[in-house]
Amino acid sequence: MNSELFTLTYGALVTQLCKDYENDDDVNKQLDKMGYNIGVRLIEDFLARSNVGRCHDFRETADVIAKIAFKMYLGITPSITNWSPGGDEFSLILENNPLVDFVELPDNHSTLIYSNLLCGVLRGALEMVQMAVDVKFVQDTLKGDSVTEIRMKFIRRIEDNLPAGEE
Amino acid sequence: MAVCIAVIAKENYPLYIRSVPTENELKFHYTVHTSLDVVDEKISAMGKALVDQRELYLGLLYPTEDYKVYGYVTNSKVKFVMVVDSSNTALRDNEIRSMFRKLHNSYTDIMCNPFYNPGDRIHSRAFDTMVNSMMMQVC
């Protein structure tokens, strides 16, 4: 798919949301929600196409996300850094973010998290493989930072949907 | 290199105009305004068939005592006008051409910014920086 078309489509989506909602927080929430809905579907496609098995720890999950998932869907490979000592938190550093190719944030949208959809996607996808995570942007090139950084924090394994009596 | 750079919409109202701060700004507004007639003339002088395959760069529109005015028109009829000091003889046609090309690319990027509504005045840091870099090189 043509990358300009993709970027412009996402741009149109975000600006429409900005028109529909009065403040940026609502837009951020809405983007996250849409991302979540994409994530819960996308994970099926991802598992079917990539043939990766179950991850044994969070570090492996991080690798799969950065090296396979991002590569497959966005054509970029973010680097993984800033592991917390407990190994339950890391950062994805995006050198360039294809979603923001032409974008310049206007001054009246200073709190808008333009690419917040990505957070929702990651959260939704990992939830479907029994991982509750917290995902948020901590740096963004749109806001003048030199790189875009997504922070992911492992919260817990979701085990409640195992049918009783099994295992 | 340039002392004034302007972007004019299809309907001939300014989208962006910027000149070196040391000089009288209004004078450049007049110069650019006057040049629009020459642009129209140049386009209409070409036959209908030629308009479709013409070059975007129009070349020197007209020289005045102190300045030279160059023009460039995109296929969507957006006009770029550049005023250059005539004492600056080092500037070749080719360089002007490549400056216009740069300007055009930059303008395209702005159009692709989802927060920019086509037809509005251009307020963009990236565009400002680019235009500044073109005006700096003279001094």
From TrEMBL, chain A:
InterPro entries: Bet3, NO_sig/Golgi_transp_ligand-bd, TRAPP_component
One protein family per Pfam: TRAPP
Signal sequence bounds: none
One cellular component (GO) term of this entry: Golgi apparatus
Subcellular location: Endoplasmic reticulum; Golgi apparatus, cis-Golgi network
Coiled-coil zones: none
One GO term (biological process): Golgi vesicle transport
PANTHER family recorded: TRAFFICKING PROTEIN PARTICLE COMPLEX SUBUNIT 3
Role this protein plays: May play a role in vesicular transport from endoplasmic reticulum to Golgi.
Protein family according to the UniProt entry: Belongs to the TRAPP small subunits family. BET3 subfamily.
Self-association state and partner proteins as the record states: Homodimer.
Name recorded for this polypeptide: Trafficking protein particle complex subunit
Organism: Lepidothrix coronata (blue-crowned manakin)
Gene field: TRAPPC3
